[in-house]
Amino acid sequence: MARAGLTAEVLVAAAADLADEVGFENVTLSALARRFGVKDASLYSHVRNLQDLRTRTALLAGAEMIDRIAEAVAGRAGKDALVAFAGAYRSYALERPGRYAATQLPMDQDLVAGSPAMRRTAEITYGMLRAYGLGEPDLTDAVRLLRSTFHGYCALESTGAFGASRDVQASWNRAVDALHVLLEHWPKEQRRSA
């Protein structure tokens, strides 16, 4: 019999908290069971396995992150939206490191397509980039550029890898400025002749 008050939502929220405390890679069903004072087996009535728990944690974190980004970019366009988007992304990554790591979990594309939070992420991100006059395939390329730049910067910053005396915030601001200039002058894709 399941412990009273223990639900999938409660477990996922606890897993997200645990991820922030010990790292997403260290979240296990055993650690979560210990947190609730139950046996591992009692969790299986709420989640199928560790992968299911991690996927649900990733979806929760993704929803939290896009809520923060959406609030930041509301009513903004162009550079103002990009700066707000980037700032919200970075603050979430640095304040919620375990949750943020969960957002990097590779997921089945059918699951992503069926997730309202993931659809909202695409809508907000692509909407911001359309203000720069981008269409496909440039939109997808620009999304990949932003994600890899933001993720790389946050990953390096979170480990203290920026050793130069230059202020990390100043470098972040310059990087976002450079991305804005690039997006305004996005190179046209060259058509290859057959």
The helical percent reads 55-70%
Mean pLDDT: 92
Number of strands: 0
Shape summary? globular
Protein described:
- The structure is a single chain.
- The protein is an all-alpha fold and 194 residues long.
- The chain is globular.
- It has nine helices and no strands.
- Helix 3 (50-73) packs across helix 5 and helix 7 (116-130) packs across helix 8 (138-158).
- The mean pLDDT is 92.
Outline the secondary-structure elements.
Layout (H helix, E strand, L loop, with lengths): L7 H15 L6 H8 L13 H24 L4 H18 L1 H7 L5 H6 L1 H15 L7 H21 L9 H17 L10
Descriptive labels:
194 residues; mainly alpha; 9 helices; 68% helix
In a few lines, what is going on in this structure?
With 194 residues, the chain is an all-alpha fold. The protein is built from 9 helices and no strands.
